[in-house]
């Protein structure tokens, strides 16, 4: 009985041609799968884009006025925190109104934000989670104060000293 060790020959390695053929076959399967999935998703994307384009172009052609969200940049807010009182906060925010912007309402919200920030402690707004809670609180207060006219609140700057 002879074994490969006895004959001195090493086991055969797969040839380069077989390796290339396997890689090409797998590439063809991957390309075909991508084409198939893309074909399934493309009609859904087109269906979602067409109404938006028709609304945008149709409104311009007919001359109809659409309610476009308006962004109002509030004046910079600088105030001290509740605790520790030697820490100051400076932020600039913008309000996104769902309908036409109301400057008087924006100024009321500006004053409300200042009053709220004076009740906040540094520990409450520390870290990413604290910042997220602050943003949610300010957005909720703005929406309540405006009776739902403010859709969101955007931070432009946020500094604590």
Automatic annotation (TrEMBL):
Swiss-Prot/TrEMBL keywords: Cell inner membrane, Cell membrane, Cell projection, Chemotaxis, Cilium, Flagellar rotation, Flagellum, Membrane, Transmembrane, Transmembrane helix
Location of the protein in the cell: Cell inner membrane; Cell membrane
Keyword Transmembrane part of the UniProt annotation: yes
Topological type in the membrane: Single-pass membrane protein
Domain of life: Bacteria
CC per GO annotation: bacterial-type flagellum basal body; plasma membrane
Keyword Glycoprotein: no
Protein name from the UniProt record: Flagellar protein FliL
Taxonomic classification: Bacteria, Pseudomonadati, Pseudomonadota, Alphaproteobacteria, Hyphomicrobiales
């Amino acid at each position: 009985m002879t074994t490969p060790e006895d004959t001195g020959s090493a086991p055969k390695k797969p040839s380069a041609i077989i390796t290339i053929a396997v890689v090409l076959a797998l590439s063809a399967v991957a390309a075909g799968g991508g084409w198939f999935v893309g074909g399934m998703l493309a009609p859904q994307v087109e269906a979602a884009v067409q109404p938006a384009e028709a609304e945008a172009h149709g409104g311009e052609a007919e001359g109809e006025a659409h309610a476009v969200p308006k962004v109002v940049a509030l004046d910079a807010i600088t105030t001290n925190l509740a605790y520790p009182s030697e820490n100051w906060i400076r932020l600039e925010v913008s309000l996104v109104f769902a309908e036409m912007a109301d400057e008087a309402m924006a100024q009321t919200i500006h004053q409300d934000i200042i009053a709220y920030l004076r009740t906040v402690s540094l520990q409450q707004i520390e870290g990413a989670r604290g910042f997220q809670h602050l943003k949610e609180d300010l957005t909720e207060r703005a929406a309540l104060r405006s009776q739902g006219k403010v859709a969101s609140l955007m931070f432009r700057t946020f500094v604590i000293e």
